[in-house]
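Annex B. Sample input.
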Amino acid sequence: MHKRIAIAAAAALVACGGGSSWVDPTSGNFTAADSADVMATISGSFGAALAMQPGPQLQGQAARAVAVNPPPQACVISGNVTVTGNMDASCSSSTACSFGGQLHLALNSCSAVTGVVANGGLDIGASGSTNGSAFSLHETIQGGITVTRNGTLVGTCGINVTVDLSSNGTTDTVHVSGTICKQPVAQ
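Annex B, continued. Sample output.
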């Protein structure tokens, strides 16, 4: 189930973009295509890094803290990505659990789009719950990524996104708000 949530969050991150009193580190001239390429690199890297994690088996456990600290994972084209942090979970039954924690996504010369290379980090706060096939997830993502295209510095892309996902097992709902490279991202 957690892989489904991670992949959905990554997909939502590509499609859209949140926050209140955050200071945006964006510098340079990012086009809409640059921003889309940055998000494709980040979401692909985040999804791949989390997909490599063994899922916590929460059923039958009263509480569990999971440290996320795998070795770096390869990005789609070049470079690597590392996800570190902690997620805590508690379960009231074999199918009803709540979770929350903080993760850090670090990109090292990561490329998932031909010619685009990203370096930097994002802090991700996540909380939510599962109950059978239903789930909810609230995520905040903030940080700055230095971007080059074909060896030329484009600039630093600030990312400040809030993602809310929910599913009743049949219908998925996604709400994303925020900015990517100082560009508001529409729902």
